[in-house]
Amino acid sequence: MKLNQDELNIFLQQHKQWLQTNGRQGKQLRLEGAVLDQLDLSSADLRYAILKGASLIRSLLRSANLSHGDLRDTKLNYSHCENASFCDALMSSAILEGAFLGSSNFRRADLSKVNLQYSDCRDALFSSARIDSGFLNYANFSKCDFENCLFYGNETVGAIFAGAKIDPVVLHEAYEASCAEGGDSEGKAIKQRIRNQILNGAISDRKYAINLRKHIKRLTNFIILPLSGVGFLFWLTLSVADMILMVYRGVWISQIEFDFVNLIWISAGLGITGLLSLLVVSIVEKISISVINESTSD
């Protein structure tokens, strides 16, 4: 069944009435297999709509609400879905190749075997969603949120994850599950893809550890080392001067000059503080290095 814009608007109005009256009036939108190519559904309230197997190629769905909808096997190629909501939607085997999905919400959606190749998903939310065995080649996931997302077995050749938030613990658990289901050889391949995704700019423990190590080096080179060095040098100079004056004058300056004693203690304190700080940052740096090595190992 192929619909034009006027026919679709009638269905949208009936569905809106169905939602507003909790099903007492109107009619739920059920357009399985319908052809809705290049039609305008922008800002439409399509919660609980049934669009299984429908074709919405190059359609406009900006700011549309498709939460809890059934979009399994739906074709959304090159559609504009910016700021749309797909929360809790069933989207297994849906085709969104080349779609514009910036800032869209896929929270808790089922995206198993989804096709997102060449799509623009920047700033999209995928938290707690299921994305497995999908085709994500050359998609742009910059600054996306994949927290608590079940993410495994996907093809991600050329995909961009710059600034994306990915939970490496979840990915590791997904890898272990993949090994159990698909055998060790398939599991190793999945683990390699996951590792590459983390290394391609994703926010992870590794990136945090690298940044932490950089800050530690700056702190050590520009603050702690000069602090401890100046402190010990100052203490050594004062102590030597006190000894020389003792030899020539027969009395310790530190015994008659209270300020002199304070300077010695202050300089010694600076040196000791610097050494203790060096000890602490060296421990933290070792931890960060172990995190880096662990995340890059096979």
Itemize the secondary structure elements and their pairings.
Layout: H1 5-20, E1 130-132, E2 150-152, H2 168-199, H3 205-249, H4 253-256, H5 258-296
Parallel strand pairs: 1-2
Helix pairs in contact: 3-5
Describe this structure in words.
This protein has 298 residues and is an all-alpha fold. It has 2 domains: 1-203, E3 ubiquitin-protein ligase SopA (Pectate Lyase C-like, 3 Solenoid), CATH 2.160.20.80; 206-296. Helix content is 46%, strand content 2%. It has 5 helices and 2 strands, in the order H-E-E-H-H-H-H. The protein has helices at 5-20, 168-199, 205-249, 253-256, 258-296, and strands at 130-132, 150-152. A two-stranded parallel sheet has the order 1-2. Helix 3 (205-249) packs antiparallel against helix 5 (258-296). The longest helix is centred in the last third of the chain and has 45 residues, at 205-249. The chain is rod-shaped and about 110 Å long.
